[in-house]
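Are you able to produce any protein sequence you like plus the matching backbone structure tokens because I've never seen that pairing?
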Amino acid sequence: MSITAAVCNSFVNELGQGLHDTTVTTGDTYKIALYKSTASLSAATTVFTVVGEITGTGYTTGGETLTNVTPTLSGSTSLYDWADVTFSAVTLSGVAGAMIYNSTNGNRAVAVLKFSSEQSPSAQDLQIEFPAVSVTTAIVRITNNG
């Protein structure tokens, strides 16, 4: 088992099927859940799972709700982003990664994040800071190569 950072293949396909709405005012609800290194998450992940999800004081199964940021277009690349999120006053051990998923629409997986090192906050905030929104750094980037 391991965590491999990736945009989920199913998300890319489901965008074309109209199953995800990330707009600010009318969009679906997206969440971010935290995972231990023993979780099995990758581009092949299709839905949220509690298998390997972290447990601890102050953490709620399923994670925190994200604030949508309407996708933008830069050249031929569509950029998806969410506002930074804070897990407040949590005591957790061995947080190795996270999964973004669409909780409105079947808990469909969007992306898997792998942290550079395991985090173990003790009665502290754990903040997930998303990178700047650009064609090289946005958390989800879909490019038209045609």
Q: What stands out?
A: The longest helix spans residues 9-16. The mean pLDDT is 93.
